[in-house]
């Protein structure tokens, strides 16, 4: 180990040490799952929150909001409390609907405060969440990532020791093209892609194209979530749809079941 460290410069050593602290802090988490998308606006946070809440009914679950400049986890869970810090730096997550959550929204003065940070600051804040949040023992820790393959996603993939990633897309061609870029990033960085989810499926945007792409790429298809008037607000009122809408719950039960099978099989 000493010889390996000797080949790194000081900046690389600090990053290596930070990663070791993050892995140590997350050592009590059994499964670490990134919920990702290539394009914004496809309902990635909706999928993440509903999956987490449903999983939390029988397991210990947490969520990390990795979207530092536009955090949405708190309003989707109905969290208004600010994050508390114990001692010098231990962050205490806020629990709601059986889910322990940490989000930059818990540090904002007001929900509409603009967070205008460059990449290094964003990466550092995410690292603080991963390194210093006291999650305790968890069965699942979901990471709600920003769309794309930029700084936050790359930092998470490189540092969190992910069990796998779920990629969310709507049926449109542009969204699917971007979703494939995200799967490519995961594959190149040796993160198992647990499967694809088709969100907003139905008459408006079409259906079936995400499953077709998954089959073509040799990836698992975890399930779809329909878009209609009855479930147009799956979590935005602070009450996740799986707790109040039987048809939506059934769709997410299938996705959760397939996610668990993918984790057990260890296939990507």
Residue runs with pLDDT of under 50 for 5 or more positions: none
For the largest beta-sheet, the strand count, sense and barrel status come to:
8 strands, mixed
Number of helices: 9
Order of strands in the sheet with the most strands? 5-6-2-7-1-8-9-10
The helix content is 25-40%
Overall shape? globular
Q: Give the class from helix and strand content and strand pairing.
A: alpha/beta
Radius of gyration: 18 Å
Distance linking N and C termini: 30 Å
User: How confident overall, as mean pLDDT?
Assistant: 91
Query: In percent terms, what proportion of residues is strand?
Result: 15-25%
Total beta strand runs = 10
Give the helices and strands as they follow along the chain.
Answer: HHEHEHEEEEHEHEHEHEH
Name the descriptors.
40% helix, 268 residues, alpha/beta, two-stranded antiparallel ribbon, 10 strands, 8-stranded mixed beta sheet, globular
What does this protein look like?
The protein has 268 residues and is α/β, with parallel strands linked by helices. It is built from 9 helices and 10 strands. The protein has helices at 2-6, 10-25, 44-55, 73-77, 119-132, 151-159, 173-188, 209-217, 246-265; strands at residues 29-36, 61-65, 84-86, 90-92, 94-96, 99-102, 138-144, 164-169, 193-201, 221-226. The strands form 2 sheets. Strands 5-6-2-7-1-8-9-10 form an 8-stranded mixed β-sheet, sandwiched between helices. A hairpin with a 2-residue loop joins strand 5 and strand 6 (99-102). The radius of gyration is 18 Å and the shape is globular. The model has no long low-confidence stretch (mean pLDDT 91).
């Amino acid at each position: 180990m000493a010889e390996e460290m000797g080949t790194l410069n000081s900046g690389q050593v600090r990053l290596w040490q930070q990663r070791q602290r993050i892995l140590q802090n997350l050592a009590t988490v059994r499964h670490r799952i990134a919920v990702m998308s290539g394009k914004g606006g496809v309902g990635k946070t909706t999928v993440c929150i509903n999956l987490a809440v449903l999983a939390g009914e029988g397991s210990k679950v947490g969520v990390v909001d990795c979207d530092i400049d536009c955090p949405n986890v708190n309003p989707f869970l109905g969290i208004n409390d600010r994050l508390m810090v114990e001692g010098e730096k231990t962050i205490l997550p806020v629990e709601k609907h059986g889910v322990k959550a940490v989000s930059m929204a818990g540090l904002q003065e007001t929900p509409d405060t603009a967070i205008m940070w460059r990449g290094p600051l964003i990466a550092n804040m995410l690292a603080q969440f991963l390194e210093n949040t006291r999650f305790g023992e968890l069965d699942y820790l979901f990471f709600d990532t920003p769309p794309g393959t930029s700084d936050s996603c790359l930092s998470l993939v490189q540092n969190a020791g992910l069990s796998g990633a779920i990629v969310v897309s709507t049926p449109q061609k542009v969204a699917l093209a971007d979703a494939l870029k995200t799967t490519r990033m995961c594959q190149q960085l040796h993160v198992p892609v647990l499967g694809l989810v088709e969100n907003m499926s139905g008459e408006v945007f079409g259906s079936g194209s995400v499953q077709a792409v998954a089959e073509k790429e040799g990836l698992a298809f975890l399930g779809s979530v329909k878009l209609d008037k009855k479930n147009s607000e799956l979590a935005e009122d602070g009450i996740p749809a799986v707790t109040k809408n039987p048809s939506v719950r059934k769709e997410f039960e299938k996705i959760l079941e397939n996610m668990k099978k993918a984790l057990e099989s260890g296939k990507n």
